[in-house]
Amino acid sequence: MHNQTVVDLRIDADWIVPVEPAGMVLEHHSLIVGENKIQDILPSHEADTRYLFRERIRLPGHALIPGLVNLHGHAAMALLRGFADDLPLMSWLNERIWPAESRWLSPEFTLDGSRLACLEMLKGGITCFNDMYFFPDATIEAALEARMRVAAGIIAIDFASAWAADPDGYLQKGMEIRDAYRDQPLVSFCLAPHAPYSCGDKTLEKVQTLADQLDLPIHMHVHETHEEIHQSIERFKVRPLERLRRLGLLGPQFIGVHAVHLLDEEIALLAEQGCHIAHCPTSNLKLGSGVAPKTKLLEANINVGVGTDSAASNNRLDVFAEMRLAALLAKGISGRANAVPAHTALAMATLNGAKALGLDGQIGSLTPGKQADIVAVDLSGAATQPCYDPISQLVYSAGRDQVRHVWVAGEMVVKDGRCLSLDETAIVRRAHQWREKIAAGQVETKIVQN
Amino acid sequence: MHNQTVVDLRIDADWIVPVEPAGMVLEHHSLIVGENKIQDILPSHEADTRYLFRERIRLPGHALIPGLVNLHGHAAMALLRGFADDLPLMSWLNERIWPAESRWLSPEFTLDGSRLACLEMLKGGITCFNDMYFFPDATIEAALEARMRVAAGIIAIDFASAWAADPDGYLQKGMEIRDAYRDQPLVSFCLAPHAPYSCGDKTLEKVQTLADQLDLPIHMHVHETHEEIHQSIERFKVRPLERLRRLGLLGPQFIGVHAVHLLDEEIALLAEQGCHIAHCPTSNLKLGSGVAPKTKLLEANINVGVGTDSAASNNRLDVFAEMRLAALLAKGISGRANAVPAHTALAMATLNGAKALGLDGQIGSLTPGKQADIVAVDLSGAATQPCYDPISQLVYSAGRDQVRHVWVAGEMVVKDGRCLSLDETAIVRRAHQWREKIAAGQVETKIVQN
User: Fold this and answer.
1) What confidence tens digit (pLDDT) does each residue in B392-450 have?
2) What was the pLDDT predicted at B440?
3) What is the three-class DSSP state of B301?
4) Could you read off the pLDDT of A105-137 as tens digits, one per residue?
């Protein structure tokens, strides 16, 4: 008889998809959790002799995957889901979203919207999200209530909001929040200058200085629309990426969001600088922005993760949908059905996002020593039968509704599809109240305009 | 006190989206069902005085929509879901799908596969599907067990299969099946010549003659890939659509499936001939075929419905996903965020499909006098809150997992997300058995090839 180690949890599943190494599927293995971490992954019959466990969960017909990483979003905007559909980016921003925000933005708005978003994301297998919004402390509070990971954006933008008056105010408040939450293991930070068209050179220089001093990633919208590029050429005589290069923002700490419109030399530049891309295919289609050249980006060995963007431009905070669409678009646009195979799409939705955030030492794959951020997906129902290849089923057939259990840092936060950490009834009630106020506000605005 | 009519069923929902007229949303109305049909739709307070009902269902937070119409698929191929992913159409067909079919095709294969597909479709709100496959009588049997509508394809193809030896055999057997099921109210028929590259002129001439004699729609793959078009030019000196025009196949009875690669004059031809298009966006992307010019097709006033294609090239039989992707692609590819607004996408998934099948007098919208094919979608959960616009939520936010109840011809076939008409456990067990056989067959094939 072996000397048995006592651990917190043993999970047995028909399939474990660790994501690292790429494409591997482990059949009838057990995942061992202890002290918030993945301690071991081994054949179930070996687990019987090696470990004693406080809890054991048997999941026949299920696949275990790493928690999904949502590499770009604005969680609080869940309160504006479906508020302004079928509009192009600039009208969407200038005519609907920014006016509504200027009227309603507050710590309560951000807290209630972020709770709604965290609830949707966690139930859908997202355990970590990279956020950019006003009142980031309220979004952090929501994430901590949900007990999920957040990479909080230290937002900077050249116009005043209810959150801050000017770029220095944004950055100073962001720094204070970073100091306040720096000991929270579930919280990390990115500097988040909104976009080239909303941040002047001074703002971006300060962001760059802070990024260097504090060794923080920079999370920024870039090359989302042709209009943005034309504006930059008019105002700065260069395209946005070239401007960012001159300001020294590009590098391995840079996460460019969208990157829909890129010249080949700009793809080469991103590769050479070691930048990361947050690919948001649904949002780019829905706002009429286009399709990012993800096949070229991947061929250039650029690290590409996926993001939902906000519920106001998607309108689902669903990384299962994004990874599937990323794979489908790569094939359909390149004309090559083997572009972005299923295991690559799954890596984009997990490990690649973790790499971009500098968190791949802790999360992004089911690897002993990493945090136990785990999603159990039920593949036993009609919609994912028969199962010839679990990775293919996860990417092309499964939906977030098949997420059964979710663990973050070893703690079960979703059980049998129900979120244990948040109160769905209360969160939905608050969403109803916001809808009444915001919709009424719209009516008034319309009357005023007549 | 009025004289009250006694009816079978009254459904109260927060929103009724009849699809006709376009974009209409009725709040706090009741839908009245009697004798398999929609008898009335009226404000709930009026329903109180006008009707007595045997059953009443109250659905707060729900929207009622017409049953979804899946305008193109091969139901039985659900048994090959995920069997051959990340391959282009011609290798997918020639190297994987056709060899597997030639080995496994049988009435049992078609029956078991069709049951699996019907279960998935019905739970996802699809109440009518247009099918093309071998042993169509087995698919009809599965649809009748499920108690859903099927437009069965009288398939014709120039190669032998377990189902028939030659085109005359295919057509003759199809005619016999049509005679056998002609009195089934849930069953209709289309002539289904497989594709221009798999049907010679003789076959197509016979199909056209039958279509004229029997006044049947023609359901056919067309212009799916560049390769197919080049082959046609080599073999027939013209592109496939021109060949079909010369053979007299084009007209208001013609349902062209895919139509990915079209010249402007071909779009004009389809419009002038009153043809219908079955748009299958996921399948076209996944096989690397491309993106159909749906914005141009709609601008030419061509009737466009949506189809899932088979689970071997999609891999979800999910019309919610197809209508969403159809709307998103139209915006992203045209660069116009207002292209294919939500209500147009919903019409593509319902009324337009019914029109193509010649069934719009019976189904496709919630209209008094039409069959009671109704889907209740639960919009009350976090993922579809807040709800500013129910049509926007249905298309951009909701998923098939929010389908709560489904009625076909007034009969409840899905209740609280469970299919009442089919045995999910038995169907999944059979899918497992087929997987064992087919996967084993693959291994043998591989060994033989070594």
Assistant:
1) 999 999 999 999 999 999 999 999 999 999 999 999 999 999 999 998 876 544 333 33
2) 84
3) coil
4) 999 999 999 999 999 999 999 999 999 999 999
Q: What letter represents residue A4's amino acid?
A: Q
Distance CA A240, CA A243 (A): 5
| Number of residues in chain B | 450
Contacts of B240 (CB under 8 A, 6+ apart): B196, B197, B222, B223, B228, B229, B232
Q: pLDDT tens digit string along A341-364? A: 999 999 999 999 999 999 999 999
Question: For A133-149, what is each residue's pLDDT tens digit?
Answer: 999 999 999 999 999 99
Q: Say how many CB pairs under 8 Å bridge A and B.
A: 213
Residue ranges per structural domain of chain B = 5-65+375-419, 68-356
Tell me the two tokens of residue A430.
């608050």
Verify cis geometry, omega within 30 degrees of 0, for the bond prior to A21: yes
Which positions in chain B touch A392 (Cβ < 8 Å)? Answer: 82, 85, 315
For the stretch A390-435, pLDDT in tens is 999 999 999 999 999 999 999 999 999 999 999 999 999 999 999 9
CB contact under 8 A, A88 and B337: yes
Neighboring chain A residues of B329 at a CB cutoff of 8 Å: 285
Cα–Cα distance, B32 to B52 (Å, whole number): 10
Q: Which amino acid is at B185?
A: P
Architecture per CATH, B5-65+375-419 = Roll (2.30)
> Least CB-CB distance to B439: which of A119, A282, A388?
A388
For B329, the token pair is 């692609």
The CATH superfamily holding the domain B68-356 is Metal-dependent hydrolases (3.20.20.140)
Chain A: nearest CA to B323, how far in angstroms? 13
The rounded distance, in Å, linking the Cα atoms of B168 and B203 is: 8
Q: Does A279 touch chain B (CB under 8 A)?
A: no
The per-residue pLDDT for B333 is 95
The helix or strand, by DSSP H or E, that contains position A40, with its residue range, turns out to be strand A37-43
- Whether cis (ω within 30° of 0) applies to the bond prior to B21 is yes
Residue B397: closest CA among A321, A439, A31: A321
Contact between chains at A396 and B427 (C-beta distance less than 8 A): no
Question: How many C-alpha atoms does B308 have within 13 Å on its Cβ side?
Answer: 32
DSSP 3-state assignment of B154?
strand
Greatest C-alpha distance within chain A: 83
A residues 366-395 closer than 8 Å to B (CB): 380-389, 392-393
Measuring CA to CA, how many Å separate B88 from each of B65, B287, B312, B322, B366?
36, 5, 12, 20, 39
From A373, A408, A393, select the one nearest A15 (Cα to Cα): A393
* CA-based nearest distance A34→chain B, Å: 32
